[in-house]
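Researcher: Here's a chain I'd like modeled. Treat it as a single chain, no partners, no ligands.
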Amino acid sequence: MKSASELILNAKGHIYHLDLPREVIAPWCITVGDPERVGQVSKYFDQVEYKQVHREFVTHVGTLQGKKIMVISTGISTDNIDIVLNELDALANIDLKSGLPYEQPLAINFIRLGTAGTFSPSIPLDSLLINPFAFGLDSLMRFYPHHVVYPDPLWYSNQNAETQVLFKEAYLGTADPDLYQRLKPGLFEGVTVTCPGFYGPQGRTLRLRSLYSDSLFELLPTLEYQGYRLTNFEMETAGIYGLATALGHKAVSINVILANRALGTFSPDAHHAINSGIIEVVQRIAAL
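Model: Modeled as a single isolated chain. Structure tokens:
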């Protein structure tokens, strides 16, 4: 039995932060960062049956080629991912009245549809990139020690000091292999680095200089993990992969590449690029 301070419900009996009831949970869930992007995604569903807005969490639930599907905005970074995945899992797998888990767990297919900046000069702007692995530079999975996975230290121990500082405490998240294989055809592939911030943690310098110098952007594209090149920065994927795996769900992350850090360029029409990426990903989900 979970206490009221552990499994928190609001006055409607909905899960606390998302303000959602159990009956809206769907086996397919697209996550986006931007709340305004939820409607951009759901307009391509066959039907939208439920809408909810609470804080930065906007949720639309509908159908797509006979699949019950939801799209939810997570906001930015893995601290919000901790809320979204744990509360969706609670809706799917815990009786909210008794606080006890259901005997038959429901596995959700999470597809993160995000934006990212690549540090690989060979990946063009506005392209779609899918991530088989994610290195988490954030601290989220350190709070779930029985489920955290770390890369072999031999992987980074022979790199320079700058790289060792970056990856020494990074955890490793892995996409669901089946979902990955089914969604990847024709997409760019590469390992993402999930950062705990947008500026300094991704090597950007405005008034404060980042610890990581420009040489890092020359080094990172040369690194490989399990045969895949390191390709991009973003702020959610490792947390999604880590929690989804620990909770028995499936997850994959697909990114619209808006920035090329190696070339110093940004998409000339980010809105069009994002919309094109949404159409492509929704069509791929519909075909599964």
